[in-house]
Specification:
Layout: E1 14-19, H1 25-35, H2 45-50, H3 60-72, E2 80-87, E3 98-109, E4 112-123, E5 127-137
Antiparallel strand pairs: 1-3, 2-5, 3-4, 4-5
């Protein structure tokens, strides 16, 4: 992990994106087992179709977990001070999520150097499935 350094960051800097593998039925089954979220709309094709969907689709919290992975690629977990996320779209089978972030603010609080990062997960190039922000303590 290459940790972010407060003095090397500028508002507007983009963090290198985290590209992820396409979502498969196996991905959804493994996530359901690991998370305990067995909502059938994510794993049962018949149920999804009865609900008006063409197929199953990824859990929103799977994409949120990917954003957590994106953040912990830059800081240790205990340095995350705040995360706010809003679900804005669906991640379908074979979509390959891309997590990205931009430095929105640098500030000091409680003796810590902190940054606020605008976050998002996108699929198919330009469809946002999650937007939000995180506050990270850098030192």
């Amino acid at each position: 992990m290459k940790e972010l350094r407060f003095d090397e960051l500028t508002v507007g800097d983009e963090l290198p994106a985290l590209p992820l593998s396409p979502i498969t039925r196996t991905t959804l089954a493994l996530y359901a087992g690991a998370s305990g979220d067995h909502n059938p709309i994510h794993i049962d094709l018949d149920f999804a179709r009865q609900a008006g969907m063409s197929d199953v689709f990824a859990h929103g919290m799977l994409s949120a977990a990917y954003l957590g992975r994106f953040l912990t690629g830059w800081v240790r977990q205990e340095r995350i001070r705040e995360i706010k996320l809003r679900f804005t779209g669906i991640t379908h089978l074979q979509d390959a999520p891309l997590c990205s972030g931009r430095i929105a603010e640098k500030f000091e609080h409680a003796g810590e150097e902190r940054v606020r990062i605008e976050l998002k997960t996108t699929v198919r190039g330009n469809i946002d499935t999650i937007v939000g922000e995180a506050v990270l303590a850098l030192k």
